[in-house]
Amino acid sequence: MTDYDLEEPLTSSARPSTDIVLTVRIIKSFPYRNVKNHVFHHVDAEHTTARQFFDSIIHTINTEGSLRPFRTVKFDTIKIYTHAHGTKTVNLVINMDHDDDWVLDLKDEKKVLQDYGIENETELSIYNEDEYLAYKKNPEDKW
After folding, report:
1. Domain segments of the chain: what residues?
2. For residue 133, what are the CA distances in angstroms to 30, 72, 114?
3. pLDDT tens-digit profile of 13-32?
4. What angle do CA 48, 50, 51 make, to 5 degrees?
5. Were 113 and a residue from 13, 16, 45, 78 both cysteine, which residue would form a disulfide, CB within 3.0 to 4.6 Å?
6. Which residues contact 143 (CB under 8 A, 6 or more apart)?
7. Spatial contact of 49 and 91, defined as CB atoms under 8 Å apart
8. How far apart are CA 3 and CA 24, in angstroms?
9. Which pLDDT band holds residue 94 (cuts at 50, 70, 90)?
10. Is the CB of residue 57 less than 8 Å from the CB of residue 97?
11. How do strand 123-127 and strand 20-29 relate by DSSP bridges?
12. Per-residue pLDDT at 1
């Protein structure tokens, strides 16, 4: 007897794209692996642009007390960390693959989250691009 049902939908398709849940990995430091996850509920992927979602994340960082240590970072980039039910990277901080196609264009006023393949339970990373590029050149972890 199995304890799962093949007729059950995947969690990525269980919610309408106008009401999805996204986890954002807020990255303060790459070498020190200083990352905090924050879950955003009720995101409308059909009508929310990358810039609008970025602004929502920044507003949350600036207003949530638990995220106070992350206010010193000048965030400027959002990148998909992993898609729901997709393979995960071995790097615990950021997915260093897909720099060309998983980075969201914050200047595009027309492209919405759904256009990037973002669906329910996608994980995203927000970070400073210059710090990421420096870490990518020398991906050494510090303690």
Report:
1. 16-137
2. 10, 19, 26
3. 667 889 999 999 999 999 99
4. 100
5. 45
6. 32
7. no
8. 31
9. confident
10. no
11. parallel
12. 45
Q: Which two tokens stand for residue 30?
A: 């790459």
Mean predicted confidence (pLDDT) in 116-120: 94
| Residue tagged 């954002």 (tokens) | 24
Return the CATH architecture of domain 16-137: Roll (3.10)
CB 36 within 8 A of CB 137: no
Contact yes or no for 23/85 (Cβ under 8 A): no
In this prediction, residue 14 carries a pLDDT of 67
Q: Which DSSP string corresponds to 48-111?
A: -BHHHHHHHHHHHHHH-GGGGGGGGS---EEEEEE-TTSPPPS-SS---S-TTTSB--TT-SS-
Torsion of CA 92, 10, 15, 90, to 10 degrees: 10
